[in-house]
Design brief:
The protein starts with a helix and ends in an 18-residue tail after the last helix. The relative contact order is 0.04. α4 packs across α5. Strands 3-4-5-6-7-8 form a six-stranded mixed beta sheet. About 55% of the residues lie in helices and about 5% in strands. It is α/β, with parallel strands linked by helices. A hairpin with a 2-residue loop joins β3 and β4. The longest helix is centred in the middle third of the chain and has 140 residues. The protein has six helices and eight strands. The N terminus is likely disordered. It is rod-shaped. Among the domains are: about 180 residues, Ribonuclease Inhibitor (Leucine-rich repeat, LRR (right-handed beta-alpha superhelix)), CATH 3.80.10; about 80 residues, no CATH class. This is Leucine-rich repeat-containing protein 59. It is found in: Endoplasmic reticulum membrane; Microsome membrane; Nucleus envelope. Its main location: endoplasmic reticulum. Keywords: Coiled coil, Endoplasmic reticulum, Leucine-rich repeat, Membrane, Microsome, Nucleus, Repeat, Signal-anchor, Transmembrane, Transmembrane helix.
Length: about 375
């Protein structure tokens, strides 16, 4: 079996399945049910004068071999979006309906060559209409088209005019498509520019915010630095005050200690001064007595009545010393002092011209 024979076999099998499968039925207005299979003749399906209010897209999709569809003279007001998926359609007649608009994706019907929209309520066509590159025949008579589209469509009184209508409308829609594309491009560029400006403003705002945060941080740092310096200066001042107070306290303590020491030392000093004075007076008295004794013992005044009591007292004292039992060293010391005193007195009296009388030295008492 050749490839073409195999293909024909599978096509026959497919149609047999369609023949045996349940036929799609369409519920019409007034509760009437329409069997679509009964409306098929070869590759044509005639649904005209069926009082349809909507297009049975789902049911039509079950017959991909149907390329010619006649739905004229019904009450259809619009085509559903799913109708644009019936790309196998080549000829469509939607004349004498109530349609006011066509779906935006009508351009997806790429195989469509013949389109009859006579006597509807259309004012404009979708921009995608320009994508119907295979469209060769078009009738837009008796539609309230906008003026430019009506001028492009012209009359469609015969085959030639309908073909010209298709060519002119496609050209007109391509121009509109170009304008729409340009407008879309312009809008896109505008939106892109606006987005760019928005991003620029956003970046500027973020930069300003970063700068403000940076400035705030710098100000906060400067404030903390000033507070730290002020705190350290206050501590230094407080420390200086404490130091001065401590020094003042020390000075006051020293002054108090000095005053106390002075107060304590004054009586002692006075006592020492008094004792010294008394000692000096006693010494002077002793020196005076010694001088008197020396004069009375060593000069010619010895025989005078004034010196008699003194000489008696001295002799009695010396006798008393001789009678006492004292240490030899003390007696030697007394004798040595006596000798030295006589020599000193002699030296003092010689410049005055007074000749001292010879006296016997003090006798030492032997044990």
């Amino acid at each position: 079996m050749t490839f073409q024979g195999s293909l024909q076999f599978f096509e026959t099998l497919r149609w047999n399945k369609l023949e045996t499968a349940p036929h799609p039925k369409l519920r019409m207005s007034k509760n009437k049910v329409l069997n679509l299979k009964d409306k098929i003749d070869g590759n044509e399906m005639d649904l005209s004068l069926c009082n349809l209010t909507e297009v049975p897209v789902k049911e039509l999709a079950a017959f991909p071999k149907v390329t010619v569809l006649d739905m004229s003279c019904n009450n259809i007001t619009s085509l559903p979006l799913e109708f644009c998926s019936l790309s196998h359609l080549v000829k469509v007649d939607l004349s004498k309906n109530q349609m006011t608009v066509l779906p935006d994706d009508l351009g997806r019907l790429g195989n469509l060559q013949h389109l009859d929209l006579y006597n509807n309520k259309l004012t404009i066509l979708p921009v995608s209409f320009s994508q119907l590159k295979n469209l060769k025949w078009l009738d837009l008579k008796d539609n309230p088209l906008e003026i430019n589209l009506a001028k492009a469509a012209g009359d469609c009184l015969d085959e030639k005019q309908c073909k010209q209508c298709a060519a002119r409308v496609l050209q007109h829609m391509r121009i509109l498509q170009d304008e729409v594309d340009k407008e879309r491009e312009r809008r896109f560029l505008k939106d892109k520019e606006l987005e760019k400006k928005k991003e620029t403003k956003q970046r500027e705002r973020e930069a300003k915010e970063r700068e403000a945060r940076k400035r705030d941080k710098a100000e906060e740092k400067e404030r903390k630095r000033k507070e730290y310096n002020a705190h350290m200066a206050a501590l230094a001042v407080q420390e200086q005050k404490n130091k001065r107070k401590e020094e003042k306290k020390k000075r006051n303590g020293q002054i108090a200690a000095d005053k106390k020491a002075a107060a304590e030392s004054t009586p002692k000093a006075r006592r020492r001064s008094l004792i010294g004075l008394l000692f000096k007076l006693l010494l002077l008295l002793l020196l005076g007595l010694a001088g008197v004794v020396g004069v009375c013992q060593l000069t010619g005044l010895k025989e005078e009545a004034v010196c008699a009591p003194i000489n008696v007292a001295v002799d009695d004292g010396l006798s008393w010393v001789r009678e006492q039992e004292v240490d030899v060293r003390v007696r030697d010391l007394v004798q040595e002092v006596d000798i030295r005193a006589r020599e000193l007195l002699q030296k003092l009296l010689e410049p005055l011209g007074v000749v001292p009388m010879a006296t016997e030295p003090v006798e030492t008492v032997e044990n």
